[in-house]
Amino acid sequence: MPAVVDSEICTGCEACVDECPVDAISMNDDGIAVVDEEECTDCEACIDICPVEAISMK
Q1: Residue 38 — φ and ψ, nearest 5°?
Q2: Residues 5-32: pLDDT tens digits?
Q3: What is the pTM of this model?
């Protein structure tokens, strides 16, 4: 199950981008984090680092 970002909550801080060990998270043109479902390894590092709890597992 890959991680998903709630775009209504994400503040664009990029903490998850820096924390992801496989570079599966990037920022879209609106400054919102996006998870590449094929690259995500379900490690949950992004969930732990997100200050606004915008990331969860599907």
Answers
A1: -75, -30
A2: 999 999 999 999 999 999 999 999 999 9
A3: 0.92
